[in-house]
Amino acid sequence: MTRSDWLAAIGSVLVIEGILPFVLPGVWRNALRRMLELRDGQLRFIGATSMLGGLFVLTMLN
């Protein structure tokens, strides 16, 4: 991957991450509040699942 590919990927992530707080700030705030109540193990599971899903998508693109 070239440097511009990495920058495009990071830019895409930032746009996608910003959609929910822009469109539905109350829903986003409530989701964050609920995430604060989760145990560390639960958050790690969510993070690992997200990373594996992303790797799967990237693998399918290549």
Provide an overview of this structure:
There is one protein chain. 89% of the residues lie in helices and 0% in strands. The protein is mostly helical and 62 residues long. It has one domain (3-61). Helix 1 packs across helix 2. It is flat.
Oligomeric state of the chains present here: single chain
Number of strands: 0
Proportion in β-strands: under 5%
| End-to-end Cα distance | 12 Å
Structural class of the helices, strands and pairings? mainly alpha
Number of domains: 1
The general outline is: flat
DSSP summary: helix tally: 3
SSE order in H/E notation? HHH
- Tell me the major beta sheet: none
Approximate helicity band? over 70%
Low-confidence stretches: none
Descriptive keywords:
62 residues; mainly alpha; 3 helices
Question: What's the helix and strand layout?
Answer:
Blueprint lengths: L2 H21 L1 H12 L3 H22 L1
Short description:
The protein has 62 residues and is an all-alpha fold. It has 3 helices and no strands.
